[in-house]
Automatic annotation (TrEMBL):
Transmembrane regions: 306-327
Protein name: glucan 1,3-beta-glucosidase
The organism of origin for this protein: Decorospora gaudefroyi
Keywords, sorted A to Z: Cell membrane, Cell wall biogenesis/degradation, Glycoprotein, Glycosidase, Hydrolase, Membrane, Signal-anchor, Transmembrane, Transmembrane helix
Biased composition (Polar residues): 92-107
Length: 844
């Protein structure tokens, strides 16, 4: 048996302790007496620990069942004070180095108590002599539970406090970021206001210069030069500021700390970087921002530039490839036919004639303007010797001093040096429309690149859109759309006249005009010289007057009629007279008397929307002024859509005055719905009779010609009815005016079968019947208009509309190869003599 469990071994130890206690004396006799009265058998050690007496064990040291309690035993005898309570009291205290106990130490856990009990039981001689008090255990657990609740509560309080501190830090960061953003917005707003003030100041300065400018063109030109230099100086200052700002930003970026995720996207600006870093610092569990070295930052920037470059190339390819395809098709056509290039042709003209000239011959005041050949896009066939000489206020630079009029266009007409017998010889001519002033259906590429929201519908809105690029864009068009080769081909086609449509801005601009001023002037003069070289006579046509004489896009500005109408009607009427004064003085020079034989007043004034009396009065005033300026040739005025018969008796007493009418079957719903054979008969019979009645002064004005016509029998050509409006043929013509809208098909079938596909098809896909009909329809109109003074076809060149291009129609075989040699004519017996077109469908 283990001696630790032998009671005989323990008693001496207890007796020895008792003796030691008694030797020191009991400090509290009364307390000792009370314990003895309860019959306790206890041993006290150090005045603090109380232990119950040993219980009996078996031979193995296991506890024997406790003795049964008798009814005579008192509660005090049966239950002695629990030693666990004493031990717990002791465990809840600690001793410092001197052996004194501290009452503020933390309680022991259940595991610690169990370990301590085991140790004490071993010291006491085994569990058999050590009482494991269940009541005490429950008490400890209860207290532990309370302590655990307190601990959890404390942890939650600490966590809540931590979250509140984090929220406070986040809000502070957001507040700092917001303050920084507000400052950044304020800086941007200040810069924007400064830019607006600067722009307004520049605008005010420009308006003031316009108001104070001299009426003479020489001063006007010098003012433009001065403004160009001023703008160049401002551009240089802006470039210097941008260079300094870029250098400053580069230095800042070398020092800054960039947040990782944004840096991976290619970098961020200073404001975004600051906001991002502040947000990251305010978030829970975020680490410090990523610090990139200059080399890493450079690599990321290089990667970003590469990505941007690739994307840009893809976008450009998506734009360029379709355009290139169109240009290649166009170039293929032109390579065989010799026609003009598409708008803004890419062929760079030859400027070698500047090689032997002195750049310093151009005064500083004229550098970069219309008097400076070194600033021109095209110098081919221009005299590039500097001169500021003008005639009628218009510059002569570009003209050579000698010319030759001993040229004959074809055997059917006289040489330029000999008079053309107007009224006896038919005029067979063509327009060069869409060149010196734009018309959307002739050069749709200028307009189709924009969406409906841009509302680019005429030259005015296009120039507004192009902004600073407009001059370069338009001069490339002037240089390439109609060329020297054009006039040689016109001569080869059997023509003898060319009509030159142009806008008033070729001479002068006013107020807020956005047109390119005067650049087209020297191209007009060069075109006239090309006509001279081919024996072709010229009809000048003011196609766009100040304020717009008809509100149509080919006048320059679509919309309200401001010529002889509205608030500025009289002002624009006078401005038009001023334009004519300059033009007539210039073209009254001897060099133009044989070549510029026809002089037009205003193209298609819309008399039905104007005060007809005022129009006639203005016309007479213009005729008188032009004659006094020295013009001796034919003066042309338009019928104004009044009907030829209504001009009988008007403007009589003026010599060499010619009435101009424009004839089309597609803009009138009664005529467009005629079947093909009826349309041909209308040309041969109807227009022939009109010409003859108008030529007779008893029934009409007198001398009459057709200044515009085509062989188109539908209005299917893109933009022919204005940009993005639809067609009468298919019943899709929309207009801001309900009376002008046509929302039911007007082809002869007047049904859903009406289609524009065949009319807009490539000529090689035309049926033989349709090709034959187009050819006869063209000749029928030539015959009808030659019953008067003759005709001018509209027009020579288009980007793709074959039925409106004499060059393309001649090439396709639907127009005569020689205008004066035709193998068909209108029959004398009217419609009975016309061919049948049984195989020709009426839905195209």
């Amino acid at each position: 048996m283990d001696s630790d469990h032998d009671p005989s071994h323990r008693r001496p130890r207890g007796d020895e302790r008792r003796r030691r206690r008694e030797s020191h004396g009991d400090q509290d006799p009364e307390r000792r007496r009370r314990r003895e009265s309860r019959g306790e058998r206890a041993v006290y050690e150090n005045g603090g620990r109380q232990r119950k007496g040993h219980r009996a064990t078996d031979s193995q040291g296991d506890l024997l069942p406790p003795p049964r309690r008798t009814r005579h035993q008192s509660d005090t005898e049966q239950e002695s004070p629990s030693p666990r309570k004493a031990r717990h009291s002791r465990r809840n205290s600690t001793t410092d180095g001197s052996g004194s106990r501290s009452r503020n130490s933390a309680p022991l856990s259940l595991d610690a108590l169990a370990k301590l009990d085991k140790t004490n039981a071993k010291k006491a001689g085994g569990w058999g002599s050590y009482d494991y008090d269940e009541e005490y255990l429950r008490e400890v657990r209860k207290k532990e539970k309370t302590l655990e609740k307190d601990r959890v509560k404390q942890e939650r309080a600490e966590k809540k406090k931590e979250l509140e501190e984090q929220e406070a830090r986040r809000r502070a960061a957001e507040s700092d970021a917001a303050m920084h953003e507000a400052k950044a917005r304020k800086r941007r707003e200040e810069r924007r206001k400064a830019a607006e003030l600067k722009k307004k100041s520049q605008t005010d300065d420009e308006l003031e210069r316009k108001r104070s400018a001299h009426t003479e063109d020489e001063r006007e030109q010098r003012r433009h030069k001065h403004e160009s230099k001023h703008r160049a100086s401002e551009d240089e200052e802006r470039r210097e500021r941008r260079r300094q700002e870029k250098q400053h930003r580069t230095e800042q970026k070398k020092r800054r700390v960039i947040s990782g995720p944004l840096a991976e996207e290619g970098g961020i600006d200073d404001d975004d970087e600051y906001r991002y870093m502040m947000e990251k610092r305010g978030g829970a569990g975020s680490g410090p921002p990523t610090v990139y070295s200059e080399e890493e930052l450079a690599r990321k920037k290089k990667k970003k530039r590469i990505i941007i470059g690739v994307v840009s190339v893809l976008i450009l390819l998506a734009i360029i490839i379709p355009v290139a395809v169109m240009l290649s098709n166009k170039s293929s056509d032109d390579s065989d036919s010799g026609g003009g290039s598409v708008a803004g042709g890419s062929v760079t003209p030859d400027k070698s004639n500047l090689d032997d000239k002195d750049r310093n011959s151009v005064p500083e005041a004229d550098r970069g303007g219309i008097l400076d050949p070194w600033s021109w896009y095209d110098t081919e066939d221009f005299n590039v010797t500097y001169t500021d000489e003008t005639v009628g206020g218009l510059p002569i630079i570009g003209l050579y001093s000698s010319w030759d009029d001993d040229v004959q266009a074809n055997p059917s007409v006289p040489k330029l040096s000999d008079p053309f017998k107007y009224g006896k010889m038919p005029i067979r001519g063509v327009n060069v429309g869409g060149w010196l002033n734009l018309e959307p259906f002739i050069t749709p590429s200028f307009f189709s690149q924009y969406g409906s929201k841009d509302n680019i519908i005429d030259e005015w809105t296009l120039m507004n859109k192009l902004g600073s690029a407009k001059t370069n864009t338009m001069e490339k068009h002037y240089s390439s759309f109609i060329t020297k080769r054009t006039f040689a081909e016109i001569r080869a086609a059997g023509m003898d006249h060319v009509r030159f449509p142009f806008g008033y801005w070729i001479v002068q601009t006013y107020d807020d005009d956005v047109y390119v001023p005067q650049v087209a002037w020297r191209y007009l003069l060069r075109g006239i010289e090309y006509c001279r070289q081919n024996g072709l006579r010229v009809n000048l046509d003011l196609h766009g007057a100040p304020g717009s004489q008809n509100g149509w896009n080919h006048s320059g500005r679509q919309g309200v009629i401001g010529w002889l109408n509205g608030t500025n009607g009289d002002l624009n009427a006078q401005r038009t007279l001023d334009i004519h004064h300059k033009l007539s003085v210039f073209f009254a020079q001897p060099r133009y008397q044989n070549v510029v034989t026809m002089y037009g007043l205003v193209n298609e004034p819309r008399n039905v929307e104007l005060d007809t009396t005022k129009v006639i009065q203005w016309t007479q005033k213009a005729i008188t002024q032009i004659r006094s300026d020295g013009i001796k040739g034919i003066i042309v005025f338009g019928d104004g859509f009044m009907g030829l018969d209504n001009w009988q008796g008007q403007l009589q007493g003026n010599d060499n005055l010619l009435l101009d009418v424009h004839q089309y079957v597609i803009f009138n719903t009664d005529q467009i719905k005629l079947k093909h054979r009826a349309k041909l008969n209308f040309a041969c019979e109807g227009w022939t009779q009109q010409s003859r009645r108008s030529m007779d002064t008893t029934t009409g004005f007198g001398p009459t010609m057709c200044g515009e016509w085509s062989q188109a029998d539908t209005d299917c050509t893109q933009y022919i009815n204005n940009v993005n409006t639809g067609t009468r043929w298919e019943g899709t013509l929309h207009s801001t005016s309900s009376t002008a809208s046509v929302l039911a098909p007007q082809c002869p079938l007047q049904s859903a079968q009406c289609s524009c596909d065949a009319a807009n098809a490539d000529p090689k896909d035309y049926s033989d019947e349709y090709r034959r009909w187009l050819y006869q329809f063209a000749i029928g109109q030539m015959d009808a208009f030659e019953a008067g003074w003759g005709w001018f076809y509209w027009t020579w060149e288009t980007e793709r509309a074959t039925q409106w291009s004499y060059r393309r129609g001649r090439e396709a075989g639907i127009l005569p190869d020689k205008a004066y040699e035709r193998d068909w004519t209108c029959p004398d017996n009217g419609i009975q003599g016309l061919d049948e077109f049984d195989g020709l469908a009426e839905n195209y």
